[in-house]
Amino acid sequence: MANSLISKMGALRIVPVIITQPSRTTTTKHYIPKFKKQRAQKYLKVELPDPNEDFGSLSSSKIRQKMKERGILPPRPWMERPFYLSATGGVFEPYVPPEGDGKASFVSTTRAKQAVELLEKKSKSMMAIRKIKSFEEEFDQKEFVLQAQDTYIKAHESLANDDKRALRTYVTEKAYPEFRHNSHLKTIRWKFIESLEPPRVVHARCTDVVSKENIFGQVTVRFHTRQQLAVYDRFGRLLHGSEILAKDVLEYIVFEKHLSNLYGTWRIHDKIIPDWTPPKEPSKLTRIMPEPEPEIVKVESTETTEPVVATTTPELAAKPAAPAVADK
Amino acid sequence: MNSFLKNLFITSLKSNQLKSIHTSASALAWSRTDNIPKSFLRHNQKIYPPQSPDEEPRPAFVCHQKTNIKYSPEKLWYIASFVRGMTVDEAIKQLSFVPKKGAIFVKEAILEAQELAVKEHNVEFKSNLWVAESFANKGMVVKGIRRHARGRMGQVRYQFSHYFVRLEEGKPPADYYKRNPQTPQQQLANWLEQMRKRKIINSY
Q1: Mutate to test the interface with B, among A83, A237, A285 (most CBs of B within 10 A)
Q2: Residue A238: CB partners within 8 Å, gap ≥ 6?
Q3: A91-123 as b/e, with b when 16 or more CB fall inside 10 Å?
Q4: Among partner residues B7, B47, B160, which is closest to A234 by beta-carbon distance?
């Protein structure tokens, strides 16, 4: 190896000097530098716009300067806060579902306690229903419950069909974003199979908002049904549920109506989720775990009294000579 | 655009109402978002019908674009076609060794698309992607003037270009450009056969 290297170097030494024409490799530069200025004057200077300018990183004074250059007025301050008056923003005095509803026995202690509480609340519910009847004379619980179930089914169907206009008629403005949450670009297949128990009114409340006459009514209906749900992502891959598996669903749905409004309708307002609901099943979609946050390690250096703060990722820390560690 | 307005609001108005900003026509004049291509990104909105469990899962894809890059579309074309049919990791590795200005934009676009795929399009592994489409188009052209002899003048075109990329989940095809590369053994065999097939003139 060494021998061959020496011989090669030797050959280099012996190589005869060939006089070659110097070749130019930079082709963008003129070969006569003398008239560079005059050549530049041939082109009129144009200020090119920067379409991908990052306005977020500019300082406010810089933005002001730029707006002045272009003669643009700053956007009008929009201080008004829009709010909607035909639906309330929440559930007042929400219904507390008895523990283990649909399966647990009546003899458990919590269940007994809740039964007593329920009796107290029942009188309030009766009062509220009487109030509702004062506005809506033909209000009948049996009739209402059927109508509520119909609304419930139609609201879910319009969500599955992505029919936003129809959904608005079955759902209040408060529930609308909650309904539509996470449904963007997904295919939902929902089917109502049967009602296991007839739906019933479990709770009713009325409140006035702003003025005495402006009254909202909220009625909680218990649904025990059998449903099918399958959610697919944009590419038609299953994300949640199944199209062949039916599940028993116990739900407490709050319906709301603006009673003072002559044209008010009973719409889905909220869903009461009890504390004892079983945990949600994990998503079928798997993801890799995000990398751990870089730990902040304080390095005590001997030379200086101040502690040097160095951020190290696990890989960096594993290496013997990490650049963050300042040592001589 | 939005980030700019947000910034402006924070600095000048101290308002917490950031989402319901009134965007007037004068604000739109600030950055021209109306003349950038939109149709390519619309592929990201397409919803495909659900598949049965026995079907092969449809590969996820993500479309991404970089608009109005200050670079010639003719030059960008070479880089766009170079990267086509590569895996994402390979493309990024190769592009970091291309000594051209356009390679930086293409690399950025691919990295952005990769991040989008993982964040928004249900792609689990970010390396399991390949460059299925990659092309460059003409963008905005600013016209300048230059002087010529005898009081004439010429036009200078300051060209901008758009770059589009679509990353698809899975492995790239073995021979994307259909070049049919042969192994040395195959080459030798072909050559031998060709040689033996020769006709020797004036022989039997």
Answers
A1: A237
A2: A230, A231, A232, A284, B50, B51, B53
A3: beeebebbeebeeeeeeeeeeeebeeeeeebee
A4: B47
Contacts of B9 in chain A (CB under 8 A): 75
B3 and B100 part of one domain:
no
Interatomic CA distance for residues A107 and B86, integer angstroms: 67
CATH number, domain with residue B68: 3.90.470.10
Q: Based on the fold, state whether residues B9 and B80 are members of the same structural domain.
A: no
Mean pLDDT, rounded, for A256-274: 94
In a domain, B169, yes or no: yes
Count of domains for chain B: 2
Contacts of B156 in chain A (CB under 8 A): 43, 46
Give residue-wise pLDDT tens across range B93-147.
999 999 999 999 999 999 999 999 999 999 999 999 999 999 999 999 999 999 9
In a domain, B181, yes or no: no
> Could you tell me how many CB contacts below 8 A there are between chain A and chain B?
128
B88 and B25 in a single domain? The answer is no
Q: Are residues B6 and B97 in the same domain?
A: no
CB atoms within 10 A of CB B121: 19
ipTM > 0.85?
no
The residue among B27, B13, B18, B132 whose CA lies nearest residue B83 is B132
Question: How many angstroms separate the CA of residue A1 from the nearest CA in chain B?
Answer: 30
Q: Which fold has domain A109-272?
A: Nuclear Transport Factor 2; Chain: A, (3.10.450)
Summarize pLDDT for B46-88 with one digit per residue, the tens.
Answer: 999 999 888 998 999 999 999 999 999 999 999 999 999 999 9
Q: What are phi and psi for residue B147, nearest 5 degrees?
A: -90, 145
| Residues B73 and B6 occupy one common structural domain | no
Tokens of A182: 């996470």
The parent domain of residue B107 ranges over: 37-46+56-176
Please indicate, yes or no, whether residues B162 and B81 belong to a single structural domain of this protein.
yes
Q: Tokens 């040097």 appear where?
A: A308
Question: Residue A182: left (phi > 0), alpha (psi -120 to 50), or beta?
Answer: left
Kindly report the three-state secondary structure assignment for every residue of B150-198.
HHCEEEEEEEEEEEEEEEEECCCCCCCCCCCCCCHHHHHHHHHHHHHCC
Q: Would the pTM count as exceeding 0.80?
A: no
Phi, psi of A118 (to 5 degrees): -60, -40
Can you tell me the distance from the alpha carbon of B12 to that of A61, in angstroms, rounded to the nearest whole number? 10
Q: Answer yes or no: is B188 within a domain.
A: no
The phi and psi torsions of A106 (rounded to 5 degrees) equal -80, -10
Q: What is the pLDDT of residue A69?
A: 87
